[in-house]
């Protein structure tokens, strides 16, 4: 879906999967069904080369910093970054980028139940974009303008993990998992 116009401006696309939230989960597993919110797709014109290479670790840090900056600005405590959660978020982003799984919350329950963490609730935000020079900022803007994603960002979570993956088409996949521990 990446197109170059006659004026040298690329069509940039941002797609957000519905914010996924689960109800409180006693111990580790849930019998509650996750709630899904509608997907959001935003198209805009920005200059970016289709072969732009991104430092995925830097993008992950940028998402983490921007989410925490937002939380502090609205009087919420910062989230702590967790390596195990980040590992699961990265795996999911890598699987979406490689086409092993569709852009979706497919496997969310498995991602959080394999974590060596006792939690009471969990949520997940996803974003896919292409053609933006700052894909992390675009994902955050999209999430903050989407009620379901914003609910996760403002949620009573204390731990997070962020995974970013790219592919040769210049697509950027972002996964942020949120957990509330007791």
TrEMBL record:
Stretch forming the signal peptide: 1-17
Domain of life: Bacteria
Keyword Signal: yes
Keyword entries, A-Z: Signal
Every SCP domain range: 65-178
The keyword Membrane appears for this protein: no
SUPFAM superfamilies xrefs: PR-1-like (SSF55797)
Protein name, entry field: CAP domain-containing protein
Species for this entry: Calothrix parietina FACHB-288
């Amino acid at each position: 879906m990446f197109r170059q116009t006659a004026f040298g401006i690329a069509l940039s696309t941002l797609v957000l999967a519905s914010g996924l939230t689960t109800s409180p989960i006693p111990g580790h597993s849930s019998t509650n069904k996750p709630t899904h919110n509608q997907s959001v797709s935003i198209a805009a014109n920005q200059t970016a080369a289709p072969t732009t290479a991104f430092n995925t670790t830097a993008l992950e840090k940028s998402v983490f910093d921007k989410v925490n900056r937002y939380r502090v600005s609205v009087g919420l405590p910062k989230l702590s970054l967790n390596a195990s959660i980040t590992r699961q978020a990265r795996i999911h982003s890598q699987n979406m980028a490689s086409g092993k799984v569709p852009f979706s919350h497919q496997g969310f329950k498995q991602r959080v139940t394999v974590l060596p963490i006792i939690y009471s609730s969990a949520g997940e935000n996803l974003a896919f974009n292409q053609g933006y020079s700052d894909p992390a900022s675009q994902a955050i803007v999209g999430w903050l303008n989407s009620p379901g994603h914003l609910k996760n960002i403002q949620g009573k979570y204390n731990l997070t993990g962020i995974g970013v993956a790219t592919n040769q088409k210049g697509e950027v996949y972002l996964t942020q998992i949120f957990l509330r521990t007791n």
